[in-house]
Specification:
Layout (H helix, E strand, L loop, with lengths): L2 E6 L6 H15 L3 E6 L2 H5 L3 E4 L5 H9 L4 H11 L4 E4 L1 H4 L4 E2 L5 E2 L6 E5 L15 E6 L1 E2 L14 E6 L1 E5 L5 E6 L3 E8 L2 E4 L7 H13 L3
Length: about 220
């Protein structure tokens, strides 16, 4: 039986580009993974790896995941109890926090203690106001050694689109950061869980290599 990566469909955008990027990563690295786009907790329960994407507002995305009967419980069983490798992308990463503060306070999954807050950048070095959303290519600064960040220590550029950012309570959970008028957590993680604020599926060769490492990651 082929190994599967469950790419969770809960009504958020950007599924197809993530699916294509993961499929290419699986083909290039010859890992034998099938990428299954699914909203069925049973498929998630049988998957070898799980990816939670996300585009839009924290509230809408959390509501979308929670509205699928059994999905949150299945994710908790697979990720927290069984130690299944998990990747959250953009808002899918932000949902790992305790609370999102977009349009009020809204409960997240609570897997990475902390909050999601609006980006409030300082002016650029040239004195220009930085625009929100933060959109485009920014250099990644690796803060902690991690198998998912192997080969990224030289500050590669990756692609961001977001107006909010995660602030973990523990600095140990911030694996990499970027600077946009202040430090923003770009990669967070603990144990078998990793989340990226940048979009690996839009980050060309660097993003593809990141997804290959996820498919090979042995927790």
């Amino acid at each position: 039986m082929a190994k599967t990566v469950a790419l969770i469909d809960y009504g958020s955008g950007n599924l197809r580009s993530a699916e294509k990027a993961l499929a290419r990563a699986a083909a290039d690295s010859e890992t034998g993974h099938d990428i299954v786009v699914t909203s069925d907790p049973a498929h998630v329960a049988s998957a070898e790896r799980i990816v939670l994407p996300g585009v839009g507002a924290f509230t809408d995305c959390m509501r979308g995941v929670s509205s699928i009967p059994g999905m949150v419980a299945t994710l908790e069983d697979k990720v927290l109890k069984d130690g299944t490798p998990f990747l959250g992308i953009c808002v899918g990463m932000q949902l790992l926090a305790d609370v999102g503060r977009e349009h009020g306070d809204h409960k997240g999954l609570g897997w990475i203690p902390g909050e999601v807050v609006k980006i409030t950048p300082h002016a650029s070095q040239q004195g220009e106001s930085l625009k929100i959303p933060h959109m485009g290519w920014n250099a990644l600064s690796v803060l902690r050694s991690h198998p998912m960040l192997e080969g990224m220590a030289n500050g590669p550029d990756v692609y961001f689109v977001h107006s909010y950012c995660i602030r973990p309570k523990s600095p140990a959970h911030v694996l990499a950061a970027t600077d946009y008028g202040g430090t923003i957590a770009a990669v967070v993680g603990r144990d078998n869980i990793v989340g990226t604020q940048f979009h690996p599926e839009k980050s060309q060769g660097v993003g593809l290599a990141f997804l290959k490492r996820f498919l090979k990651w042995q927790v």
